[in-house]
Hints:
two-stranded antiparallel ribbon, 17 helices, elongated
Amino acid sequence: MRFHRQKQTAGDGDNFQAGRDVNVYVAGVTVEQANEIFDSRIEMLRRELTSQADSVVNERMDLLQKATFEAFDTPELLSVFANPDFQFNILEAQRSAARSGEPEDIGLIVDILVQRATSDETPRLRVATRKALDVAGLLSPRSLAGLTAVWYMVALVPAVSDIDSLLAQLDGHLAPLISELPSDERWLNDLDLLDCLSVATGGLGSLMTVPQLIGKRKVPVFICAGFSGNFDAKKILRESDPRLEELVVPHPLQSSLLVLAGRDENNIRELATQFCGGFLSSEAELALTAVIAELGINERQLPDWENKLNREIEMYPSLRAVRDWMRGFPPLTVTSVGVVVGYANMKRVLPAVTLPRLDSIL
Length: 362
């Protein structure tokens, strides 16, 4: 069994030959060699199964091989086939595809392989992707959607500084998932069994609500108490550097108050540096430090902020649906395996959205 991409080009270091068998010579790995590595792993898989499974395995491996080489269509991606650990990943992918054979599962398996190939290799990444490939063929569509939604809400910090853009971004990203969200809590136990989630039983505490996840973990400046009329932040910043006055904006949840533009203290300082042309004077740094301290991003919170944020969420149907769905969840943690699966699935659901590199968040 061979799958060959037909492609022609020419250039130093590359050798493309049109025809039935196309060889690509980069980093010591050709398309033909990659296919041979893939086939050799299939032969290892066959030794784990009886001959009665041959016809089913053949069909599923054809689908997986075709999807894999459609995704691994660059010299850089092909080069990873020379990595011994990645060859074990291929075998795990084949085992998972042999168990399922569903096109959606095969798509997820291939995307996990792609993320493994494009991430910096670390011990955590190696272990997590190996286990993620093992469970990818065992997840129901609803469990996968639920895991992805929880991972997205817990893990990602948006790159926006105003509340309308934030909520609109969350709403748009979650929209493809809401039709598949599970309607009972058995999926939590299923994902716990598969080591994608760690669900706490007994004890105290609960998972944060969606407003809490947004306000406390994503953009804490949205829920801070803000500046009252007794503290003229604009004046303090203006006197140190007139350009810093732009940092002071209306509070997103309380129009009578002011806050600093930005998601958190680090982002506020980045913005201030940009406003000042890439350099903060000592006077500007002292003024900004005083204003940030007065703001108390993590200590002093706006009264009734959660209800105010809930009212904002009402205008965004997908985000509202996820908020209501996550109410009453038990305490849980997304494991490293769950991060890999949720990340790969979100990349499939939203291929045009730029996410942080997997190795940077694992």
